[in-house]
Write a structure and sequence with these properties.
Blueprint: H1 11-21, H2 30-35, H3 37-40, E1 43-47, E2 50-57, E3 60-63, E4 67-68, H4 81-104, E5 111-118, H5 120-129, E6 134-137, E7 143-147, H6 148-153, H7 160-172, E8 177-180, H8 186-209, H9 213-228, H10 230-237, E9 240-246, E10 249-260, E11 263-271, H11 273-276, H12 280-291, E12 296-298, H13 306-313, E13 319-321, E14 324-330, H14 334-339
Parallel strand pairs: 3-5, 11-12
Antiparallel strand pairs: 1-2, 2-3, 2-4, 5-14, 6-14, 7-12, 7-13, 8-9, 9-10, 10-11
Helix pairs in contact: 8-9
């Protein structure tokens, strides 16, 4: 298989795949495939109408579930026999490639392929095709999915605290404005860079103490890369977002993109601490939701961080999209490999 590092030139094919498959999982989004390459050292292969991805996690090579660019139903009961056969063949291609790579490197142990961030349907498909597959839930990777109208309206008793936070911000900063982010707006992109640098400076001492400063600096680099190529991301993937200003000063921002026709993925959301204490996070969350054009918002995973989990649950998600880690034994004979030239 012809693996390469994901780049901006892959955006259109990745987005076509996401739209045609109607993804809800953020790890299959085009923007995340590009941005997170630098964190996970991921590689991409586009072969015979299928997209394959692999990455390095904690020193281990891991794989994503493959997807047909034109769309292919998973094991959710609605797929056809031909869909199932196509998925089986795509998985077999991936297994063969991994075994070949091991043998070329003179690694003769039985190969274990680890699939990460797979959905429940994909997990069931792998378990069915590969008896003995080892499955482990990874709740820290589950995506928080919200109805956009819930976050835009904040109606009902359960959202009373969020409304109070917004009222507190309005009272403390009556001149605040929220400005949507659109292409060809260099000043707004610069304002986001300013907020991100200030936010990182605020977080630096605590992060350094917890050995996570490098991760936050890498996140800053990812944000800056998205801003550098914002117009391209916007054209191919509907990248959007917004900036919160108070007294003319940028104090918060968010960046998002179209994950699929029904789902917008919110990639980043930051607010400087002084304004966050006044309810700034609730304000930018609400203002962006009012302008999002999809039925659902994916606000991504909680990473197993209790404070982040609590914050995400406080917005009452429609569901948390379960993710799994699946390990399969890839045992093939030399004859099998030689008989298939792909």
């Amino acid at each position: 298989m012809n693996w390469h590092i994901p780049s901006i030139t892959d955006l259109e094919v990745l987005q076509a795949c996401a739209l045609n498959n109607g993804f809800f999982a953020n790890n299959y989004g085009a923007v995340n495939s590009i941005l997170y390459e630098r964190r996970f050292h991921s590689q991409l292969a586009v072969e015979d109408g299928w997209i394959f991805e692999k990455s390095m996690e904690n020193g281990m090579e891991c794989f994503s579930f493959p997807h047909a660019i034109g769309g292919c139903r998973q094991s959710d009961g609605s797929g056809t026999d031909s869909d199932r056969t196509a998925i089986r063949d795509a998985l077999a291609r991936l297994v063969r490639d991994a075994v070949r790579s091991d043998r070329q490197a003179d690694l003769h142990t039985n190969r274990t392929l680890v699939f990460t961030n797979v959905t429940a349907d994909e997990k069931d498909m792998l378990a069915d095709l590969y008896p003995g597959a080892e499955t482990v839930p990874t709740p820290e990777s589950g995506d928080y999915i919200y109805r956009t109208q819930d976050l835009a309206g904040l109606a009902g008793k359960k959202y009373s605290r969020k409304r109070n936070h917004i009222h507190q911000f309005q009272k403390s900063h009556p001149d605040y404005t929220f400005e949507p982010l659109e292409p060809l707006q260099a000043e707004k992109l610069s304002a986001i860079r300013t907020v991100e640098e200030a936010w990182l400076h605020e977080a630096a001492d605590e992060a350094a103490a917890g050995s996570s400063l490098a991760a936050l600096e890498l996140e800053r680099d990812m944000i800056f890369f998205a801003l550098e190529h914002f117009d391209r991301f916007a054209a191919a993937c509907g990248m959007s977002g917004g900036i919160l200003f108070a007294a003319g000063q940028p104090v918060a921002f968010c960046l998002a993109s179209l994950l699929s026709r029904r789902v917008t993925d919110v990639h980043f959301e930051k607010c400087l601490s002084a304004w966050g204490r006044d309810g700034g996070y609730a304000v930018i969350n609400n203002e962006f939701a009012k302008r999002a054009g999809t039925e659902y918002l994916n606000r991504e995973e909680d990473l197993g961080i209790e404070g982040l989990r609590k914050a995400k649950r406080s917005y009452y998600p429609e569901c948390v999209l379960e993710k799994y880690r699946v390990a399969i034994k890839a045992i093939e004979t030399i004859e099998d490999l030689e008989a298939d030239p792909s």
